[in-house]
């Protein structure tokens, strides 16, 4: 029987290419590669040595530096990059050079390095972006991707000029992890974020979305089969995410940080977001979107895109005045 989710992939890939981005593989280091969707105008195909077409010839490309301000969309834990950001890419590509990476063990990205920390994800993403000729960028991070974005902003202030965060926190401390899971009724992060059954997939969707979304059981089964691969490694990513509360400090970010939130987020609620805004200080701003949950960018994409573009426009207008 045809997997409905897998069958939709060629259509989604075609829509992304129509929006102006194409997949590109970047070798970060020996044993580590990242798949990053890049602006099609930055791709230069090397001339073929003969008329014979080979796999190597077809994939032998290089990239040029982007000509527009760079926006990097960093996905969450339940899906790869273009699935997460499918409603944002087309809204941004006219004015911005949009890059959509697949973090390690998502999409086509993989490593033989045993490090499963957000720090390693941030290091690899930064190296990948620099290899693509990116000197400055704005990160837009959702959920797990938001934690990677925060870490990357902390480590590479010369590369990251601003950060937009949705449904995420600075770090998953053991106290926040325990309180969040208890409040949602799950025994572990893996039970919540790595479902193994249709019922588990429905439970994840229920807490992630504000609206009661219904999908047939077959679609849930197909989603589980396609999107939740690399289970062992992803379980290790979840283990590597939790840090001790007593060892956590608030970095002094030089960048502007915009918290763009679904006001009905059940996973990282509004109070947590507003407290984080206060902790981050004067460089942080907060904007809530009504009638939206954790999946705010998917539930209310038009309003989310409007808010995101307004922030980006203000950011670059301020940069132009300097």
UniProtKB/TrEMBL annotation:
Domain of life: Eukaryota
A Pfam family assignment: Abhydrolase_1
Membrane spanning residue stretches: none
Every AB hydrolase-1 domain range: 69-172
Protein name: AB hydrolase-1 domain-containing protein
Organism listed in the record: Rehmannia glutinosa (Chinese foxglove)
